[in-house]
Amino acid sequence: MNPLLPYCKAMSDDVNQVLEQTAPMKHPLIELIRYSLHEQQEALEKLIPVLTADSEQIHHEDHKNHKPSSQSEQHSDSAAVSLDQIRSYLSILYQNNEVAEPTMRAWVRAVHWMPSFETEHTDQVHSRYEHMREQLDEIAVHLREMYGQAAIKYVVPTFYLEVSL
Question: Number of folded domains in the chain?
Fold first, then answer.
């Protein structure tokens, strides 16, 4: 299986749940966040099938070569989807998250300053958003392992990667 697939699926679930939870909300900041989430949702809807097809190709090649299933996770990089195939989708995920994070913090502050029906949902929405960030952090680690730091430096902002000196 492509190592990015479970993280992208989890992120897609989180995006869909946040969009569903925030649908009745009309706060201007949540509207900006929702716009960003819609773009991420579209990117994930295109990215997940590419990763799924890659996973199926890996499984088919492993089965054809009669490799044990334990080795299927340790496939060669040549079997992995090329970075060029997924670069634009990943860029959308990271750039939109980078833009929306401060907006999310501002929305949480604003809703707590002026309580409304949205106040009771802020913890849930913010928690989902933090989970999305964790998924992006994990994807960044796998991207670095799969393609190398030099190849992903214009796709993944450096603050998603642990810096080692």
Answer: 1
Give the residue from 123, 100, 105 showing the smallest Cα distance to 35: 100
Say how far apart CA 16 and CA 119 lie, in whole Å. Answer: 20
Neighbours of 146 (CB within 10 A): 16
12-24 residue pLDDT tens? 999 999 999 999 9
Residue 165 domain flag? no
List the alpha helices (DSSP H) in 65-121: 83-113
121: tokens are 């949902």
Q: Report if residue 38 sits inside a domain.
A: yes
| Domain ranges, residue 27 | 5-160
Residue 123: its H or E element: helix 122-147
User: Looking at the domain assignment, is residue 142 inside a domain?
Assistant: yes
Q: Is residue 77 part of a domain?
A: yes
* Cα–Cα distance measured from residue 104 to residue 110, given in angstroms and rounded to the nearest whole number: 10
The pLDDT tens digits of the residues spanning 112-149 come to: 888 777 888 899 999 999 999 999 999 999 999 999 99
Please give the Cα distance from 86 to 155 (Å, whole number): 10
